[in-house]
Amino acid sequence: STTSASQITFDLRTIAGNEGMKFLPPWRRGSNEMKVKEFLRGQKVPLHRREMAPFVCAHLNGTKKIAAVFVENTSDGDGYGRWVIHADFEPLQAERDDR
């Protein structure tokens, strides 16, 4: 069955205290999820900035999942970077082509 968007709620959090949550970047679709702290390390986010990294948390039926993570480009916390969307939340290429 499909889930309607009205059943999902979202909030903004930081990685601190949530390091063990799993994340799957879109370029790894079909692979296993990884811990978000491992993802940030792979994206070369400095250790001292990882706990402060914001993420969008999706809540559905009592479970929470990372929908997107902000990856900083610099180590000084200037706010520049990009959001990386979890593969489960990103539209497939065919869906994007239909728009």
Summary of the model, kept short:
With 99 residues, the protein is of the alpha+beta class.
Strand content: 25-35%
Silhouette = globular
For the largest sheet, list the strands in their spatial order: 1-4-5-6
Secondary structure: number of strands: 6
Biggest sheet record: 4 strands, antiparallel
Reading the helices and strands in chain order gives EEEHHEEEH
Separation of the first and last Cα atoms: 23 Å
Question: What does the average pLDDT come to?
Answer: 86
Structural class: alpha+beta
Into which percent range does the helicity of residues fall? 10-25%
Low-confidence stretches: none
Explain what you see.
There is one protein chain. The protein is of the alpha+beta class and 99 residues long. It contains 3 helices and 6 strands, in the order E-E-E-H-H-E-E-E-H. Strands 1-4-5-6 form a 4-stranded antiparallel β-sheet, with no helix packed on it. Strands 2-3 form a two-stranded antiparallel sheet. It is globular and about 35 Å long.
